[in-house]
Specification:
- The complex is a heterodimer of chains A (370) and B (551).
- Chain A has a six-stranded mixed β-sheet, with helices on both faces. A six-stranded mixed β-sheet of chain A has the order 13-12-11-15-21-14.
- In chain A, α2 crosses α3 (109-122) and α2 (94-104) runs parallel beside α4.
- In chain A, 23% of the residues lie in helices and 33% in strands.
- Chain A has helices spanning 44-52, 94-104, 109-122, 138-150, 168-185, 196-202, 220-225, 230-235, and strands at residues 4-15, 18-29, 33-37, 59-64, 67-68, 79-82, 156-160, 188-193, 205-210, 213-218, 240-246, 252-255, 266-268, 270-271, 286-291, 296-299, 307-316, 321-327, 332-337, 347-352, 360-363.
- With 370 residues, chain A is an alpha+beta fold.
- Chain B is an all-alpha fold.
- Chain B contains 23 helices and four strands.
- In chain B, α7 packs across α9, α15 (344-378) crosses α18 (427-450) and α16 (380-395) crosses α18.
- The chains are: A alpha+beta (370), B mainly alpha (551).
C-alpha cells in the first residue's frame, strides 16, 4: 500500500442523542481514490462534510500529510468539494465560477485567468468561460463543478454523490470521464455514493459504511469475494441467506428445515473474518450461510446434496439470468443459470456449483440485514 | 459553527434592535404608568372612565372588522375571475388591479376626495345631472373611511387568494368530481377549506392595517374618531399622558389581534400546505359577444379602480381658482408644476422625503439582512426572539410608534439610552427605519430560506472568507429579495403620513405633510402635484422591484 496521506483517526460525530459516526478510522494513500459506499443514513455525507469542515467532529483527529487539520475552518483546509447538486453560483459565468477559489486566494488577475484557461480544457470546456450556468447542460455543469474544485489545486478532492443528478446513460459516460480526469490530476479523492456499481468502477478501494461504522475497507474484489460481515455480503452484490448448524468439521453447515417437508442437506462453506464483536463460531452453533447466485447451480435430479424447490421468479439481466427458487424445506435462494434453465412454476433441484465461490459462514445472530 | 465573534455581533445587533424597536414602547408604557414621577394608574383610570375613549376603541374594532368583510367581498371574487377564467386583456388587468397596494395611503385618500368629495368630479356630475343646489353627499364619517379601506385593502385578499389558487392541485377537484360532487359543493368543501390559510392571512393583514389606518380617519373622520386619530388629538391637545395610555391600549389590541389570528390558524397563515400538482386550466370565455362583455367589464372595472388616481393627475393640471361650479375644469395647464419648480422652498418636502426615505431604506435593508442572517444561523429560541422583535413594528400601529419615539427620544439621558432626536432631522428617518424593518427583514428571511446552503459551503470550500462570501455570493443571490424589500420599504417611507404628522418639523416636513397643508390651504392643485410626484416615484420603485424579481 502507498504511504498514508489522509488519516482519519477514531472519528465520532453526534447530533444530540444520535450517534452518526462511531469510532471511524481510515487511512488513504496519496493519489488514491476511495469510495464511501453505504445505504441511506449510514453517515457517508456526514463523514464527507466533517472532512470538508462543515461539521465539527465530536471526537477524533484528521491529518493530511501529517498535519493536524481538525481544528482548521473549512476555508483554510484546502479541500476541494464537488456537491451533489453542484452548488454552482448561478449569477456568475462558467469562468467566474472556476476563478472564484483562485480569487479567494488573492492570486494576481493574470494568474487567475491563466489557471482558468488551464483547467477548463481538462474538463472539455475550453471556450466556455463566458457562458452562464443556465446555458449549459447538466453534464457540463457537473464538469464545471469539478473544474471549480480542482482549480485552486486542493490537497484532497471530496465528491458528494456527484453523478446522482444525471440520467443513467450520461452517468456512465461521465463517471468514465471523471475517473480518467482524477487519475490524470493525481489528486487524493474521496467519493461518496450509494450505488455499488459506481463504487466498484471508481474506487481503488471501497469503504463500506453502515450505521456510522466502517464495515469493511478493501478493493472491490475483496468486498465481493471476501466480505468481512454478513452485512457486506448482502449489501454488495446479490446474495441469499440460509440458516443452519455448523458441523464438527467447522466447514459444513446442515441447512435448517423451516417447513415440514423435503430433506435437509449439509453444504460446505468457509468462515468470514470475525466481525466487530470478535465472535468466534464453534461447531454446534446456529449459523447463517450466505451464498452468491454463481455459487449455486441447477442439478439434474435428487443428488445427495441437492435441495428441491420451485422457481418463483426469473430475472433476465443481459449477460446472465437469475432465478429465485423457493425451497421445499423453507427459505429461498437466487441461482444464476442459463437463459432457458427453467420457467416460473417449474420444480427444480439446486446444489452448490462446483466452480463457484464457496458460501460464507457467519454467526446466526449477525442478522443486520434481512 | 458559531464563533465567539458571531455571538458578540448577535448580542450587539439584539441590543441595537431592542433600542430602536422595544425601548420606545417600553418608555411609553412606563410613562403611562407615571414614570419617572412615581407609579400611578390614574391615566389608565381616566381612560376607563371616559366615554369618548371607549367609543374610539369600539369604532376602531368595528371599522377594522367591516374593512375585512368589504375587502374580502371585492378581493376574493376578483381573484377567482382572474385566476380561473381567460378573457382579452386578463394579464395586464391582473397587474393593474393590484396597483393600489403600491400607492401611499394618503395619495389614495386625497384621490378619493377629488373624485367623491363635496367638490369632486362624480359629486359635481351627479349634482349637475340632477339639477341640485347643493352637493348630493358629503364624503365624511365611517362610510367614507370604509370606502377608502375597501378600495385600498381588497388587494390583500386579491393577491393572497390568487397566489393560493395558483398553487392548488387540480387533481383534488377531479377527485371531488369523480366522487360525484357538484361544482358548488366542490367550492364549499374543497376550495374554501384549502384556501383557508390564505384567507386568514389576508384577513389578518387587512384587520391590522385597518386598525392602524390613520390617513382616511384623519381626513374623512371629522368628529368620528378612531384610536389612531384619538391618540394624535390627545397629543395635539398636550395631553401626552393620555396619548400614551391610548397608545398602550391600541398596541395591546394589535398584539391581541395578532395572537388570536395565529391561534385560529395555528400560525400557518398564508401557506397553502405545500400542495404540488397541476394548476387547473383557466376556463376560456367562448363566443365573441361573451368575450366582448367580459373584456368591457374587466377594463371598466380597472378604469373604476384607477379612476381616483387619474383624477389626481387631472386635478394637478387645474390652476388655482379657475374651477368653481363647472362639472369639468374649464382650464388645464402646467401652472401648478411651474409654480413648484419656480419656488425651490416648495420643493424642499420632495427632497426631504427622498433623502429620509433613502437613508431609512438603506439602513433597513442592511439591518434586516443582518438580523435575518443571524436569526437563521442561531435558529432555536434566540432566532425566534430576533424574528419577533423584527415583526413588532408590523403589528403595532404607526401612530403608536410615532408617540413612542417622541416619548423616548425627547429626553437627554444617555445613560438610560435616551437622546434628544425629536426636533432634529434624524427622528423621521429613524421612524421610517423602524416601520420598514419588518418588510426588509422578512424579505431577507424569505430570500435566505430559499438560498441553497451548499452555495455558501461551496464558497467556503474554495477558501473564501466571510466578507467575500457575503459580497460575491449571498448578496448577489439575494438581490431580488433585497430589491423587493427595499422598494416596498422605500414606498412606505416616502408616502408615510402617520409618523410624519407626529414627528415632523418645518425644516424636515415630508411630501405627505405638505399635501395635507396644501389641502388645508385649499391649494388642491399643489396637493395633487405632490400626490402625482409621490405616485410617480412609488410606481418607479414598484417597477424596479418587478424588474429585479424577474431577473
Amino acid at each position: 500500500m502507498m504511504s498514508t496521506f489522509l488519516s482519519l483517526n477514531h472519528l465520532h460525530k453526534r447530533f444530540g442523542e444520535l450517534s452518526v459516526l462511531k469510532d471511524l478510522c481510515l487511512e488513504i494513500g496519496e493519489g488514491e481514490i476511495v469510495v464511501l459506499l453505504g445505504p441511506s443514513g449510514s453517515g457517508k455525507t456526514t463523514l464527507l462534510r466533517s472532512l470538508a469542515g462543515f461539521e465539527t467532529l465530536t471526537a477524533g483527529s484528521l491529518q493530511v500529510a501529517g498535519e493536524e487539520i481538525s481544528a482548521l475552518p473549512a476555508n483554510r483546509r484546502n479541500f476541494g468539494m464537488v456537491f451533489q447538486h453542484y452548488a454552482l453560483f448561478p449569477h456568475l459565468t462558467v469562468g467566474q465560477n472556476v476563478a472564484f477559489g483562485l480569487e479567494a486566494r488573492n492570486l494576481p488577475k493574470a494568474e487567475v485567468a491563466a489557471r482558468v484557461g488551464e483547467v477548463l480544457p481538462l474538463v472539455d470546456l475550453a471556450g466556455f468561460e463566458e457562458r452562464r450556468i443556465h446555458q449549459i447542460s447538466g453534464g457540463q455543469q457537473q464538469r464545471v463543478a469539478l473544474a471549480r474544485a480542482l482549480a485552486p489545486e486542493p490537497r484532497v478532492l471530496l465528491l458528494d454523490e456527484p453523478l446522482s443528478n444525471l440520467d443513467p446513460a450520461l452517468r456512465k459516460k461521465t463517471r468514465r470521464q471523471l475517473k480518467k480526469l482524477i487519475r490524470n490530476v493525481g489528486i487524493t479523492a474521496l467519493w461518496v455514493t450509494h450505488e455499488q456499481e459506481e463504487a466498484f468502477y471508481i474506487g481503488d478501494r471501497v469503504a463500506l459504511l453502515n450505521e456510522g461504522r466502517l464495515e469493511q475497507v478493501g478493493t472491490p474484489e475483496q468486498l465481493y469475494l471476501e466480505p468481512a460481515s454478513r452485512f457486506v455480503a448482502e449489501f454488495v452484490g446479490r446474495a441469499s441467506a440460509l440458516s443452519g448448524v455448523l458441523q464438527t468439521d467447522a466447514k459444513t453447515v446442515e441447512i435448517e428445515k423451516v417447513r415440514g417437508y423435503g430433506q435437509p442437506v449439509a453444504w460446505m462453506g468457509r468462515q468470514g473474518s470475525p466481525d466487530d464483536s470478535g465472535k468466534v463460531i464453534e461447531p454446534g452453533d446456529r449459523v447463517a450461510l450466505i451464498i452468491r447466485p454463481e455459487g449455486l447451480a441447477f442439478a439434474d435430479g435428487s443428488e445427495g446434496d441437492a435441495l428441491n424447490g420451485e422457481i418463483a421468479e426469473r430475472q433476465f439481466a443481459g449477460e446472465a439470468t437469475f432465478y429465485r427458487v423457493e425451497l421445499a424445506i423453507g427459505g429461498e435462494v437466487w441461482v444464476r443459470g442459463g437463459e432457458d434453465a427453467g420457467r416460473v412454476g417449474d420444480h427444480v433441484w439446486v446444489r452448490l456449483a462446483s466452480q463457484g465461490p464457496l458460501p460464507r459462514i457467519y454467526a446466526a445472530d449477525q442478522d443486520r440485514v434481512e | 459553527m458559531i464563533t465567539l465573534r458571531k455571538k458578540g455581533l448577535a448580542a450587539l445587533v439584539t441590543v441595537g434592535l431592542t433600542w430602536v424597536v422595544g425601548f420606545p414602547l417600553l418608555i411609553t408604557l412606563l410613562e403611562a404608568l407615571g414614570y419617572p414621577h412615581g407609579w400611578s394608574l390614574s391615566s389608565f383610570s381616566e381612560f376607563v372612565h371616559r366615554v369618548d375613549e371607549w367609543q374610539a376603541l369600539w369604532r376602531s374594532l368595528w371599522i377594522s372588522a367591516c374593512s375585512v368583510v368589504l375587502a374580502a367581498v371585492v378581493g376574493v371574487p376578483l381573484a377567482f375571475v382572474f385566476e380561473r377564467t381567460e378573457f382579452p386583456g386578463r394579464r395586464v388587468l391582473g397587474v393593474l388591479v393590484a396597483l393600489p397596494v403600491a400607492l401611499p395611503p394618503l395619495v389614495g385618500v386625497i384621490a378619493f376626495l377629488f373624485l367623491y368629495g363635496e367638490t369632486g368630479f362624480i359629486t359635481r356630475a351627479v349634482q349637475v345631472v340632477a339639477g341640485m343646489e347643493t352637493s348630493p353627499w358629503r364624503l365624511s364619517g365611517p362610510g367614507a373611511i370604509l370606502l377608502v379601506h375597501g378600495y385600498s385593502m381588497y388587494v390583500y385578499f386579491y393577491l393572497f387568494t390568487r397566489a393560493a389558487l395558483a398553487r392548488l392541485d387540480h387533481s383534488v377537484y377531479e377527485a371531488a368530481a369523480a366522487l360525484g360532487s357538484s361544482r358548488v359543493r366542490s367550492f364549499l368543501r374543497v376550495s374554501l377549506p384549502l384556501l383557508r390559510p390564505a384567507l386568514a392571512g389576508a384577513a389578518l393583514l387587512t384587520f391590522m392595517t385597518a386598525l392602524g389606518s390613520f390617513s382616511a380617519p384623519y381626513i374623512f373622520g371629522g368628529g368620528f374618531r378612531v384610536m389612531t386619530t384619538q391618540i394624535v388629538a390627545s397629543k395635539l391637545n398636550g395631553d401626552i399622558a393620555m396619548a400614551q395610555v391610548e397608545s398602550v391600549v391600541l398596541a395591546s389590541l394589535a398584539c391581541l389581534g395578532l395572537w388570536l389570528m395565529r391561534r385560529i390558524d395555528g400560525g400557518n397563515l398564508a401557506v397553502v400546505g405545500g400542495i404540488r400538482g397541476v394548476t387547473p386550466a383557466r376556463r376560456a370565455i367562448r363566443g365573441r359577444p361573451a368575450r366582448m362583455v367580459a373584456g368591457v367589464l374587466g377594463w371598466g372595472l380597472t378604469l373604476f379602480l384607477l379612476l381616483p388616481h387619474l383624477t389626481l393627475l387631472l386635478i394637478s393640471f387645474v390652476p388655482p381658482v379657475t374651477w368653481t361650479v363647472e362639472a369639468i375644469p374649464p382650464v388645464l395647464n402646467f401652472d401648478n408644476y411651474h409654480s413648484l419648480w419656480m419656488a425651490p422652498e416648495r420643493l424642499r418636502p420632495v427632497i426631504n422625503s427622498i433623502w429620509m426615505a433613502s437613508l431609512a431604506t438603506a439602513v433597513a435593508v442592511g439591518l434586516g439582512l443582518l438580523v435575518a442572517k443571524l436569526s437563521l444561523d442561531f435558529k432555536g429560541r434566540f432566532g425566534r426572539v430576533l424574528e419577533t422583535i423584527l415583526a413588532i413594528p408590523w403589528a403595532i400601529p404607526g401612530t403608536v410608534f410615532a408617540i413612542s419615539l417622541a416619548a423616548a427620544f425627547s429626553v437627554h439621558s444617555p445613560l438610560t439610552g435616551r437622546l434628544i432626536l425629536v426636533g432634529t432631522p434624524w427622528i423621521l428617518p429613524l421612524a421610517y427605519l423602524v416601520r420598514s424593518l419588518p418588510v426588509t427583514g422578512r424579505s431577507s428571511l424569505a430570500g435566505l430560506r430559499q438560498l441553497d446552503r451548499s452555495m455558501e459551503e461551496a464558497a467556503v470550500s474554495l477558501g473564501a472568507g466571510r466578507w467575500r462570501i457575503l459580497r460575491r455570493i449571498t448578496i448577489p443571490l439575494l438581490k431580488p429579495a433585497l430589491a423587493a424589500g427595499a422598494s416596498l420599504a422605500f414606498i412606505t417611507a416616502l408616502g408615510d403620513f402617520v409618523s410624519s404628522i407626529v414627528l415632523y418639523t418645518y425644516d424636515t416636513r415630508p411630501i405627505s405633510v405638505e399635501i395635507f397643508s396644501s389641502l388645508r390651504l385649499q391649494e388642491t392643485g399643489v396637493a395633487a402635484v405632490f400626490g402625482v410626484l409621490l405616485m410617480l416615484v412609488s410606481a418607479s420603485a414598484f417597477l424596479l422591484w418587478g424588474r429585479e424579481e424577474r431577473a
